[in-house]
Amino acid sequence: MPTLTKPQDPAPARKKHGRSWHRTAGKPVRWWMIALLLVIGFHRWIPDTRWLMVHMVTLGLITTSIMVWSQHFTEALLHHRLADGERPRQIVRIYGVTAGTVVLMVGMLADWWWLTLVSATVIGGLLTWHGVSLLGQVRVALPARFGMTVRWYAVAAFFLPVGAIFGAILALEPADPWHSRFLLAHQTLNVLGFVGLTVSATLLTLWPTMVRTRMEDTATTLSRVALPAMAAGSLVAAGGSVGGWVPVVVSGLFSYAVGVALIGWIMLRTGMRKLPEGYMGWSVASGIAWLFITVVLALILVAARGLHASVMGALTIPFVAGFLLQTLLGAMSYILPSTMGGGPTTVRASLAAINRGGIYRVTVLNLCIALFALPSGMLPSWVRALVSIVGAVAFAAFLPLMISSAKISVAGRRRLMAQRAGGGQPPAPANADADDADAAAAEPKHQTHALRQLVAGVLTVVLAVGAGIAVAPQSAGLGLSGSAENAVQATGNTTEVTMHAHQDMRFDPAEIQVPVGDRLVITLVNDDPANVHDLVFANGATSGRVNPGETAEVDAGIITEALEGWCSVIGHRSMGMTVAVIPVDSHGNPVGSVGHENHGAGAASSADDLQDPAAEVDFNAAPGEAFTVRDPALGPAPNETVHELALDVQEVAREVAPGVTMDAWTFNGDYTGPTLRGAVGDVFEVTLTNSGSMGHSVDFHAGDVSPDQTMRTIAPGESLVYRFEAVRSGIWLYHCATAPMSTHVAAGMFGAVIIDPPDLPRVDREYLLVQNETYLTVPSADQPDLPEGVDAVVDPVGIAAGTPSLTMFNGHATQYMHEKLLARPNERVRIWVLAAGPSKGTSFHVVGGQFDTVYKEGAYLLSPSSPENPGGTGGAQALDLAPAQGGFVEMSFPEAGTYTFVNHSFAEAERGARGQIEVAQ
Question: Which domains does the chain possess?
Fold first, then answer.
């Protein structure tokens, strides 16, 4: 048996610095677990989630755990308990690494290289301090059989600071080949060197303890070969990576693989005497197996591809999930109950709780990891999605089981302390012979239970795979035509293509030739710095939304005929974001009908093909009960000269006509944004925040500023400050300026800024009417995650055709037919009018009324006191405004009645551009 002392329950006087230290030091591990689960659950809305999750595991979970448990095992192996006065320093190191990791993530996500450098330096310094501390304990302790293990802990700790240097360099985003070289060196030192050495050194003593048998006789001898081989292999591979020497990297990885193989051999020989039990043993064994497999795969890929970033990218899942997480959680499943104590009975109960369903969980996890590790294209997209969900749930099960185990331990310790405080004695240990006899009798039952869990785990994954194929059979090659002339034999080959989504609304390449019968797998890279894109194929395969700078994979299935793809973000397809997949024979000749005529802007949809949700609108009906009518009344401009406004981009469901609720893209949640008002010389400071799912922006026509920065498109989650001074009077449009602008405006992203002309006369009532038109269609299957209740979306093809579905004042087609504007006879009424478009203007007219004042685009066209209107006898019947123009009219009503205001382009009035003014005594 290894000379590993089992901690005894602390005396009351030592409680402050005994097991309480483990609980305090281990808190960051639980924090990182919870944070990781949250990121996995909300990854769609979080930028750079792949990088974030990898570093939450490696720097957050793994590094913190290593610092806690390497200290624990150092004290146990050296039989030398650290002085209580040293505990605060350990806490500082552990919590310092946690804080440094958080700051590192902030620096990377915010693209603040200096912050990344500072945090990497802090983390490296704290790990160096940790390693020096471990060596100090070796020097003061008496010679111990496993002092060598502690020395390897210290050596491993010194690997991470060097790897952190390469990580900081990567934050500068060096161009290839340096990026690939530094990435491989960074991962080799941190994962293989720091983590791999620490884990391997620990398992020499921990593994026999976990399986409850004696250590293999040759373990010490073999470890003196294995650990140096792994350390040397890490250093050689990292040095070869930086130098760009492929043979050197291959030799380093080979040396490392030999070392891991020796560790695995020691574990195998030990486990042959007594098979591992439950989750803890099989999870750790699986982790080491994945380490060996992944290193061998890395060796093969480097030899085949060279020092390419795709090498380590292809191995991320087996490295992180297969090796790191499985080893960590398996070890914690044994260590936590054992260190928390509470007596033998409590420890057994706690171990049973945390290892519940262990064989089932390990089976599901490893099958999911194995499927996910397959080369891209071998796993259909829906299968991949469902397998990832099943695997994530199996991983997440550890957290509630750990909490359950901890509760058992705490309760047991309290009972034990109460017995001691009352002068009683703990229960005597059970008879060892009786325990052995009971264990032997229970062995067949345990084996049957384990077999059932194994079968259940296999069936769970098989069902997930089957469900994924059932959802999209074509991606698995099961949707091929059955006719004799069209039947295609799958080749078993995969065509892999990297496609870039560009800022100019194009896919590159936009045409892909694929040997007929091949599976097509596309890696979509979103190079657009601000806009979200996706790639959807007509057969249902999709990438999902891809944030700026991120990458996603699309499995388009087996190509048997021409296939069309496009970006489903509204408006992007009509601007040309389409791709044609063309099957070709062995000579490169197209097979079947290619269908080039279906590509381009006209391929998006047709206004005739899709039902217009506004086609059956009753324009005499009142708005829905849940609709809030927008108050058209204008108040005077605020007294302040600096106006601050927050514009929050929100994509929400909004009613725009009775029975028609659309996916509205809004400023501050309303179709038609808030109105700003001020005077010449006032300063407006607008903070734009993008809380939507795609890129958005804002363009204030009232600002005489350079558009380069203030009008730039910002990605989801970003903000900018738009500051301008009003230097000219008038009513000015503001709108989203992100392409396609017509779509964003038609979706509701517009509003008005009123800059009062000098000496603007007071009136009795003042109103604002902003006219716009929208073009609607029913949502299609490739438009995911629409707000609840939406039955209409903007139709870019309808915009191009020029026939609106609705033309509205202030965002609704019938609101002012039922909630009328108010006035009294002989009151002076001013109505500001703005034509927001995107494409239609207005001829504003009040039926039964005449305008004695007309102000358009910053100047009076008609005024009772102007020289051009002697005696004030002139009048106007309409205010004509082109798109983006505005002005106001003034009038008074000599008698009571109901006056209708309209766009005198009657086709637009009949689509909703009308309302009423009720003049009453």
Answer: 17-173 (no CATH), 494-603 (2.60.40.420), 642-919 (2.60.40.420)
